[in-house]
């Protein structure tokens, strides 16, 4: 729905402003100060959840106020006789406001659809002709409306409003507010993308219709992650961290086989060191977070938090590497880095702090460095292919997209079928001698001290927790997570079934014992198995619960199975059922099934990627193909300006990222994903798709994350 039609009764002054999504209102004010054509008052919108008995649906209270007003929760409580209101968590906000994040909520998020389920506390200072800056359910946009118009708009939605004069508010009363009146159960209404009849515990938005809302629910309800009160930061819960541990184990084993050792360097870096490599730091400068204070006193010199560790580590490489016998030096660290981005954050894909590994190696020759860069890239590919069942394309980055300050960058690029966007999977850089010259990492010439000293050839390579987000987006469905068996924390769950009131105690006991025996048998063979013998839930409820968590295989066991010495297995990825005898080959059969599931999941994703990779020869074909969710393989000259031009010409101007209101005219232009290693043959005289000059190679283009 476009803003215009959603708020057609609301007079919006001027254009909708698009900008980076601020983390808080202070940042918002700073951004607007730089771009706003008019003077305005900033508003704030807070969603509170009053304390509600478990048997009742909560009725959130939305406080809409001038940013300058002091709005203590005690006054909010008093206004509606609400008990102990707390700021609503992101899940509740998503539930009442169509999947959006708390930072996206604005006055215009109150609409006819949710008006009956929420209440509004309105700041009495919002009145008259003053122009207000409000967010239209999207932190990366601002609209300006007159205060009186905003009040009329809110009234028209039918929401219950209490106006409060916050300036006249006395100090908060200490005694508890009286109990909230009993709320009538709110009538259910159909929201866009809402799945009808979805179990309450399950996913309530459709992947194809509301992808961001779906993604948020998948992660929170699947217990992969939780939202945090610092914008852009998230909590990795055991269900996702365990996947990271499996990746760590897999990758450690491989890199150690070529002599890489793990180490740890500090997260802090002095500005002097950080700014040493100019080209390099220019790429990161706007996102570097700085520590400027200790307690209340200012630091003499601000200290940066590493956005990556090249400049942290290389002074010590210079110190440690003296002779060519000190080469190669191969260190890796498993750590977190901070990049304070203002683009809309997305769990796993774009977060301000994220976990990764960064390998940094120094070699005597280019050949040695080059071999390693490609070896690491192969392992990155295999993490995607063999662990996560996600297909990726190996290739080289264009000049525009390569690592700042490096020699060349290799990459594995993935594809998200639902949005049709490419996504960078992991990168392995050959830094050349740029850094060794900057940091003076030299060795004496093996041919003799009279020959000039040699600068080391360096690589750096990194893979982050982003891989988990890509895996979730590619495989999961409207029932919840779908996890590949090789990385699932729980590979199979055994559930007792078919027990009714008529089942004899003997059968009941036999089934329960059987379930535990099966679990034990599988665990003994190294299968990550569990059982669910909770007797306060029905089998159907349990099925939905474990489907939500993405457990690859469900094993059902009931009285009939007990008699026949068998189990019924159900695959999470495609719902297929089969009977497996509880004989000698039982465990082997289950393990084979895991391998089949793993392979089928990869093949399904691969065929989707392949069928959406389109060869094109002209720029006119770009936008229609992008709109069909394709990535494009096109002849390209490799020029930096040409690539910028392609991006501009394939983008519709004036709309921000992530706001694809109308599918026919999405905002985002095509950028290069990579120059694939596997190249189709370049036709004789092939012209660059952008500028018409002779093409050098095929390049994969796409909208991307
Ligand atoms: Zn060109």
Topology:
Blueprint: H1 3-6, E1 12-18, H2 25-35, E2 41-49, E3 61-66, H3 73-80, E4 86-87, H4 90-96, E5 119-123, E6 131-134, E7 141-146, H5 147-157, E8 160-164, H6 211-221, E9 225-227, E10 234-236, H7 238-257, E11 261-262, E12 268-270, H8 271-274, H9 278-282, E13 289-294, E14 297-305, H10 310-320, E15 329-338, E16 353-363, H11 366-387, E17 393-396, E18 408-416, E19 421-432, H12 434-439, E20 442-443, E21 454-455, E22 457-464, H13 466-475, E23 492-496, H14 505-524, E24 529-531, H15 539-548, E25 553-557, H16 559-564, E26 566-571, E27 577-581, H17 586-611, E28 613-615, H18 622-627, E29 631-636, H19 640-649, E30 671-676, E31 697-702
Parallel strand pairs: 2-6, 3-5, 5-8, 11-15, 23-24, 23-25, 28-29
Antiparallel strand pairs: 1-7, 2-3, 2-4, 6-7, 9-10, 12-14, 13-14, 15-16, 16-22, 17-18, 17-30, 18-19, 19-22, 20-21, 25-26, 26-27, 29-31, 30-31
Helix pairs in contact: 7-11
CATH class of the largest domain: Alpha Beta
Can you summarize the main beta sheet? 11 strands, mixed
Specify Rg, calculated over alpha carbons.
29 Å
Helical proportion?
25-40%
Strand order in space, largest sheet? 11-15-16-22-19-18-17-30-31-29-28
Fourth CATH level, the homologous superfamily of the largest domain: Bira Bifunctional Protein, Domain 2
Q: Categorize the overall geometry.
A: globular
Strand content: 15-25%
Number of strands: 31
Structural class: alpha+beta
**Uncertain segments:** 169-191, 653-666
Number of spatially distinct domains: 4
CA-to-CA gap between the ends? Answer: 23 Å
- Helical segment tally? 19
Which architecture of the largest domain per CATH? 2-Layer Sandwich
In CATH, the topology of the largest domain is named BirA Bifunctional Protein, domain 2
The average pLDDT score comes to 88
Q: Tell me which ligands are bound.
A: zinc ion
């Amino acid at each position: 729905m476009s803003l215009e039609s959603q708020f057609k009764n609301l007079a919006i002054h001027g254009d909708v402003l698009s900008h980076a999504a601020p983390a808080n209102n202070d940042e918002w004010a700073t951004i607007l100060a730089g771009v706003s054509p008019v003077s305005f008052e900033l508003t704030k919108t807070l969603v509170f959840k009053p304390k509600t008995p478990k048997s009742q649906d909560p009725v959130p209270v939305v406080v809409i106020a001038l940013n300058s007003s002091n709005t203590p929760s005690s006054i909010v409580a008093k206004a509606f006789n609400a008990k102990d209101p707390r700021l609503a968590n992101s899940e509740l906000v998503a539930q009442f406001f169509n999947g959006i994040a708390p930072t996206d909520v604005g006055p215009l998020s109150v609409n006819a659809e949710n008006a009956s389920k929420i209440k509004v506390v309105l700041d009495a200072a919002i009145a008259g002709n003053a122009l207000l800056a409000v967010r239209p359910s999207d932190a990366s946009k601002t609209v300006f409306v007159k205060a009186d118009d905003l009040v009329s708009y809110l009234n028209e939605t039918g929401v219950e409003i209490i106006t409060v004069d916050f300036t006249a508010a006395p100090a908060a009363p200490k005694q508890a507010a009286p109990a909230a009146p009993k709320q009538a159960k709110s009538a259910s209404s159909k929201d866009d993308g809402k799945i009808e009849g979805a179990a309450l515990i399950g996913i309530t938005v459709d992947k194809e219709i509301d992808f961001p809302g779906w993604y948020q629910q998948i992660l929170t309800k699947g217990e992969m992650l939780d939202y945090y009160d610092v914008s852009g930061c998230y909590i990795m819960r055991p269900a996702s961290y365990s996947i990271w541990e499996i990746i760590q184990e897999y990758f450690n084993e491989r890199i150690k086989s070529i002599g890489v050792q793990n180490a740890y360097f500090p997260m802090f870096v002095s500005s002097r060191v950080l700014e040493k490599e100019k080209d390099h730091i220019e790429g990161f400068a706007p996102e570097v977070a700085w520590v400027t204070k200790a307690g209340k006193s200012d630091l003499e010199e601000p200290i940066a938090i590493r956005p990556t560790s090249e400049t942290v580590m290389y002074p010590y490489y210079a110190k440690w590497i003296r002779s060519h016998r000190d080469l190669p030096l191969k260190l890796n660290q498993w750590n977190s880095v901070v990049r304070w981005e203002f683009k809309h954050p997305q769990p796993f894909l774009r977060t301000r702090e994220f976990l990764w590994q960064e390998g940094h190696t120094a070699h005597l020759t280019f050949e040695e460095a080059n071999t390693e860069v490609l070896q690491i890239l192969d392992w990155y590919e295999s993490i995607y292919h063999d662990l996560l069942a996600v297909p990726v394309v190996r290739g080289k980055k264009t000049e525009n997209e390569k690592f700042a300050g490096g020699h060349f960058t290799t990459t594995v690029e993935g594809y998200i079928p639902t949005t049709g966007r490419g996504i960078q999977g992991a990168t392995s850089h050959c830094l050349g001698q740029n850094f060794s010259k900057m940091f003076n990492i030299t060795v004496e010439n093996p041919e003799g001290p009279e020959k000039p000293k040699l600068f080391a050839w360096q690589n750096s390579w990194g893979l982050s927790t982003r891989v988990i987000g890509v895996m979730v987006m590619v495989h999961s469905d409207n029932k919840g997570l779908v996890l590949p068996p090789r990385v699932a924390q729980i590979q199979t769950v055994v559930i007792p079934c078919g027990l009714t009131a008529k089942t004899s105690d003997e059968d009941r006991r036999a089934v329960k014992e059987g379930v535990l025996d099966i679990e034990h048998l599988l665990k003994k063979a190294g299968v990550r198995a569990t059982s669910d013998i909770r007797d306060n839930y029905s089998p159907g409820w349990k099925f939905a619960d474990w489907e939500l968590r993405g457990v690859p295989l469900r094993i059902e066991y009931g009285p009939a199975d007990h008699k026949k010495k068998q189990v019924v297995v159900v695959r999470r990825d495609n719902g297929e059922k089969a009977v497996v005898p509880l004989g000698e080959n039982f465990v082997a059969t289950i393990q084979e099934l895991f391998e089949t599931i793993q392979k089928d999941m990869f093949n399904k994703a691969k065929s989707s990627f392949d069928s959406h990779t389109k060869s094109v020869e002209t720029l006119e074909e770009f936008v229609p193909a992008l709109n069909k969710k394709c990535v494009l393989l096109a002849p390209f000259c490799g020029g930096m300006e040409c690539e910028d031009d392609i991006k501009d010409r394939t983008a519709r101007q004036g709309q921000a990222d992530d706001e694809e209101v109308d599918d026919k005219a999405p905002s985002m232009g095509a950028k290069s994903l990579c120059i694939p290693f596997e190249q189709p043959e370049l036709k004789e005289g092939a012209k660059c798709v952008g500028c018409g000059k002779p093409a050098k190679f095929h390049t994969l283009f796409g909208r991307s994350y």
